[in-house]
Structures are given as structure tokens and as C-alpha cells.
Design a protein that fits this description.
By secondary structure, the chain is an alpha/beta fold. The chain has a single domain (about 5-255), classed as Alpha-Beta Barrel (TIM Barrel), CATH 3.20.20. About 30% of the residues lie in helices and about 20% in strands. It has 6 helices and 9 strands; from the N terminus they run E-E-E-H-E-H-E-H-E-H-E-H-E-H-E. The protein has helices at about 60-70, 95-110, 130-150, 160-175, 195-205, 230-245, and strands spanning about 5-10, 25-35, 50, 75-80, 120-125, 155, 180-185, 215-220, 250-255. The protein has an 8-stranded parallel β-barrel with strand order 1-2-4-5-6-7-8-9. Strand 8 (about 215-220), helix 6 (about 230-245) and strand 9 (about 250-255) form a beta-alpha-beta unit. Helix 3 crosses helix 4 (about 160-175). The radius of gyration is 17 Å and the shape is globular.
């Protein structure tokens, strides 16, 4: 049984998903992204704003989705970060970034007029323009602040190959007790993953660093992300990871292109 499924999306494509409690105990909607860049792409030093489609992702759409599946635990995450090279993690100074990020995300999560009943935040930076120590200090303290104040109850990080060793592993080790999930993004592997057994080995190697009980297998359904790992290899390898390694869940980046 697949315990948890996470969908990364910036629209209301979760409404098109059929969720069955025969296969899932939890469904996570991870909204991409809260960004600390303004509409002119200028860094705001931790002042986060929603960049997902707020006309489609509404309190009503979230509530309706939850009502449809009362036997599945539906959780909402706000993913902070970026995909690709645009909008990297780049604090102008750590102290101000931490204060701004804590205040702005609290305001976004607790907004009375736009209350999505957010459960947690996810950290998914694919580009970082800062030292590992700055990343660890800023992100670690942000998660600590939001959890200790009760703004969120869950937190996850979503590393990928290029930044995993220098940034995400040290971050995990510094705040492991505060992190509920690690959602590793396999679509960003540098080496071509040619068969399911190779994917299985990669997951095994990661589970030596991140506890298997917390470690998701992540992937992207967007075809520009298939350069090193095809959907069929991920599907077959992912089934092995779930069945043989008893991973807690998987995630997929997906939004509704058809509706656009």
C-alpha cells in the first residue's frame, strides 16, 4: 500500500485526481512556490509571496477536495524555493532574511481572507547563491521558528543531486528532529538512470543518510524533466522502492496543462 502521495502544483489540478483510501492514508498538496522575489524578479530578502494561481487554489477549492475524501488525510504544504536557475536562494543578510521569512510566511499561512489551512512548508531550492552555512542557518532557523510558534506542524526538504551533499545533507543533520519528510527529486540526476534497478540502488544509497521512514521518491511529470530518468523507469523502480524498501510515499510535479 502506498501510504502518502504528494502532488506539486501551482493550480487546482488536484481537483482532477481520484483519491482512494484503499491505496492512500495521506494526500499532500504542495503549492509551488512561495518566493522571496517580487514581480520584477528582484530579491526581497525573505519577504515571501504566493506565486501559484490564487484564483484557482482557493480556500473553497481546498475545502471541497477535502470533503470529497473524508477517509484520506489531506494536507497542504507551501513549497518555498525555485525550479531551474531563476529565483535562487540568496539572502542579503541572514538575520533580516530569517525575520522577514518568518513574518511573511506566518502572514501568508494565517491570512484570514485566504486561509488554505496549511499544514507545513517544504524547502525545494534547485539553485542556491549562498554558502552552505548561510543556507543551513537561514532555513534551519526559519523551520524552527514556524514549528515552535505553531504556525506549521510539518516540514520537509526536497533535495536533488547537485545540492544534496553540500547543502541538504548538512541541513538535515542540523535539524533532523524538526523534519518530517525528505522528498528526493530523482528527475534531477546528472547520470542517466537507465533501468529500475539503478533507481532502486540510488534510493538505497540515500537511505543511508536520510532515514527510510522519512524518505520519499520524487519525480516530475513535466516532459522537460525526463532527460536522465524516463517515466517508465521511475514507475517500475518506484514500485520496487515502495514494495521492497517500504518507502513512505512518492511525489510528482504535475499541473493541469490541458485546462490551460
Amino acid at each position: 500500500m502506498l501510504s502518502i502521495f504528494r502532488q506539486y502544483t501551482f493550480d487546482d489540478s488536484f481537483e482532477q485526481v481520484f483519491v482512494s483510501n484503499k491505496f492512500l492514508k495521506e494526500y499532500q498538496i504542495a503549492l509551488t512556490f512561495a518566493s522571496d522575489y517580487d514581480e520584477e524578479d528582484v530579491a526581497t530578502n525573505g519577504l515571501f509571496r504566493a506565486t501559484w494561481d490564487v484564483t484557482k487554489v482557493t480556500p473553497e477549492s481546498i475545502a471541497f477536495f477535502k470533503q470529497q475524501y473524508p477517509d484520506v488525510d489531506i494536507k497542504v504544504f507551501i513549497s518555498i524555493g525555485n525550479r531551474g536557475s531563476q529565483h535562487p536562494f540568496k539572502p542579503l543578510d541572514n538575520t533580516t532574511w530569517i525575520a522577514n521569512a518568518t513574518e511573511s510566511l506566518t502572514r501568508l499561512i494565517k491570512n484570514e481572507d485566504y486561509n488554505l489551512h496549511v499544514d507545513g512548508i517544504d524547502v525545494l531550492y534547485e539553485e542556491i547563491d549562498a554558502s552552505p552555512s548561510d543556507f543551513i542557518k537561514c532555513i534551519g532557523q526559519l523551520i524552527r521558528n514556524l514549528k515552535e510558534s505553531g504556525v506549521i506542524s510539518k516540514a520537509s526538504i526536497s533535495p536533488s543531486f547537485a545540492l544534496n551533499k553540500d547543502y541538504y545533507i548538512p541541513l538535515y543533520r542540523s535539524i533532523s528532529s524538526l523534519l518530517d519528510w525528505v522528498d528526493y527529486q530523482f528527475q534531477n540526476e546528472v547520470t542517466f538512470v537507465h533501468d529500475p534497478s539503478m533507481l532502486f540502488k540510488l534510493y538505497n544509497d540515500l537511505s543511508k543518510v536520510y532515514p527510510r521512514r522519512k524518505l520519499f521518491a520524487g519525480y516530475s511529470a513535466e516532459n522537460q524533466d525526463w532527460a536522465t530518468l524516463s517515466p517508465i523507469v521511475f514507475f517500475l523502480g518506484g514500485m520496487d522502492i515502495l514494495n521492497k524498501r517500504r518507502a513512505p510515499g512518492v511525489s510528482i510535479h504535475y499541473h493541469n496543462y490541458y485546462k490551460e
